Amino acid sequence: MRSLIFIISILVFNACQQISKEKEISAEQKLSLQLGNATVWFQQSAEMKASYLQAYDKGKMLLKIKTDTLSDTELEAAVVLDLDETVFDNSPYEARLFLEGKNYSSQSWEEWCNEAQAEALPGAVDFLNFADSLGLKIFYISNRKIGVFEPTLKNLKILKLPQAEKEHLLLRTTKSDKTDRRAMVKASHHILLYVGDNLTDYDQRFAERDSNLGKELVEKHQKELLHNFIMLPNPMYGEWESAIYGNDFSKKEKEKLELRRKVLNEKHPK
């Protein structure tokens, strides 16, 4: 009898182990689950809306100060903005990924862009209309690939955003570095302000995040950033994540999860 009970116990234990293994989720699914909390915050929190409204309101104040001190000899004044999670709200795309247990892919992203259904983020339309009323030129510099130029321009026009014209939309052709595109604008304009959800929407030097994931760079250039750049919050994705992976998004999902764990502090940092 005891031997029979022992055998049955072993069989039950093995069955439970097998069920447990079958219930384990993949590293890809775990990454997708982490995206869910960030997307809920972005879509539903009052704090997110307050953050965007506050940031864009500061942008308006900076533009007013800067335009009041412009001289007649300066180049035509302009403002430069990123698009995604700066003007466009793409959180529905992120929500789809979470609900389907998936992660970003260029194919699914381009499909979303082609829908041209992104809504404007809080404060963006008011800020853009204010900049337009000051007589400023507006340039949208985005790392969307040039292949989605037409639907992106269509999305701008659907939202009735000012200066939604071909010559004011600069998308990615060969590389994500925006330096050359900014230089094109600088050649004929005096850029008063930059707006974006990544530090490299202001300057490519902030891509070098070897030291403390870039936080030391922010401290070094704090005064310049506060005066010239409006930083918008985006916990869903961005170069902050790339920095954790050593700027290598090709890493396997399991390795990405481990790298995320390693950068977490259980104790207050010294």
Structure description:
- The chain has one domain: Rossmann fold (3-Layer(aba) Sandwich), CATH 3.40.50.1000.
- It is α/β, with parallel strands linked by helices.
- The protein is built from twelve helices and seven strands.
- Residues 4-9 and 15-22 have low confidence and may be disordered.
- The protein has a five-stranded parallel β-sheet, sandwiched between helices. The chain has a two-stranded antiparallel ribbon with strand order 2-3.
- It has helices at residues 2-23, 27-44, 46-68, 91-99, 106-115, 124-133, 149-158, 179-186, 215-220, 222-228, 239-244, 253-262, and strands at 76-81, 88-89, 119-120, 137-145, 169-172, 189-196, 229-231.
Query: In the CATH hierarchy, what is the architecture at level 2?
Result: 3-Layer(aba) Sandwich
**Largest sheet properties:** 5 strands, parallel
Q: Which sequence of SSEs, written as H and E, runs from N to C?
A: HHHEEHHEHEHEHEHHEHH
Give the quaternary arrangement of the chains.
single chain
Q: What fraction of the residues are assigned to beta strands by DSSP?
A: 5-15%
CATH class: Alpha Beta
Kindly name the structural category: alpha/beta
Instruction: Specify the overall morphology.
Output: globular
Helix content: 40-55%
User: What is the CATH homologous superfamily assignment?
Assistant: HAD superfamily/HAD-like
Give the low-confidence spans: 4-9, 15-22
